[in-house]
Write a structure and sequence with these properties.
- There is one protein chain.
- This protein is an alpha+beta fold and 282 residues long.
- The protein contains four helices and 20 strands.
- It is elongated.
- The model has no long low-confidence stretch (mean pLDDT 93).
- The chain binds zinc ion.
Length: 282
């Protein structure tokens, strides 16, 4: 028997198992988990989807030590813990230290010993670091178009939706897909001090933010922000209303999405240009 048969399970089968089990241990919902062959691989050396389940390290060890029966595992496999929940159990991240960096689309937001928000929409922080008791803790609120939270991080406690098409965790990366081969959000956690929004998109109040390795693009490229570096700035980029009492390095008031009618806005622009012309005309 190979020492780690899970390593050779084809990727599409792993994904089906994750989807069926709700991206967590079928008994307790926890991450990290392993792919467990309910009929041992030594007995049936095949990777059949229906024979695989997810077990966290603790429950996997209990099965190995015969402290948990196959019948109990099968019962939980038939009714996985996370299938009764919209979000996963909190998974603690290990951010700490006195300097923190958020990297998004060729932009970097860096701060030392102070709270900061890298990105906000309508006064709501999307991603930032909270500095408390001499250490940094990550906070994030990444949602889909319907305003449903996809990934939420509150003071280093990570939860994600169990309703995604797929959530894959590979080492320090979290990849959430909303359909086959389409990454919704990919994050990379480099404890103790850096998080990268590698690619993907998120929404807040109808504002779409799309990130790749080159830029942060807002609302179908109404604004593109790239190659900026922000240091010790309370709020890096804010779209719409700013967080009360703060200042932002880049504040986009959302001119491409006026609250009133676009005609009224265009009239005001025309008036301003008319006024300019009359003042400068000889
Ligand atoms: Zn477990």
């Amino acid at each position: 028997m190979s020492s780690d048969p899970g390593r050779n399970i084809p990727a599409p089968i792993k994904r089906q198992v994750r989807q069926r089990c709700g991206f967590g241990c079928v008994i307790c919902g926890d991450y990290p988990y392993q792919y467990h062959h309910m009929i041992p691989y030594a007995v049936d050396p095949a990777h059949k989807e229906e024979n695989l389940t997810l077990l966290c390290d603790k429950h996997h060890k209990k099965v190995t030590n015969r402290l948990l029966t196959d019948a109990t595992v099968s019962a939980h496999n038939a009714d996985p813990y996370n299938q009764h929940r919209d979000v996963t159990n909190p998974d603690p991240l290990d951010f700490s230290g006195a300097v923190a960096t958020i990297s998004m689309g060729s932009c970097e937001f860096i701060a030392e010993r102070r709270d900061f928000v890298a990105f906000s929409v309508d006064a709501q922080p999307i991603i930032g670091f909270h500095y408390v008791d001499d250490r940094y803790m990550l906070c994030a609120d990444l949602r889909d178009e319907q305003n449903v939270p996809l990934i939420t991080i509150v003071d280093n406690e990570l939860t994600h939706t169990t309703k995604a098409f797929d959530v894959e965790r590979i080492a320090n990366r979290l990849i959430l897909r909303d359909r086959p081969r389409r990454v919704s959000i990919e994050l990379e956690f480099d404890a103790p001090s850096r998080v990268t929004v590698t690619r993907g998109q998120f929404w807040m109040n109808g504002v779409r933010v799309w990130i790749d390795d080159r830029a942060i693009r807002i609302d179908d490229e109404a604004a593109i922000i790239d190659f900026n570096r922000f240091r010790n700035i309370p709020v890096g980029v804010s779209v719409g209303r700013q967080i009360p009492g703060t200042v932002s390095a880049i504040a986009l008031d959302g001119g491409w999405r006026p609250q009133g009618s676009m005609d009224a806005v265009m009239d005001a622009v025309m008036d301003a240009l008319r006024d300019f012309n009359s003042r400068h005309r000889q």
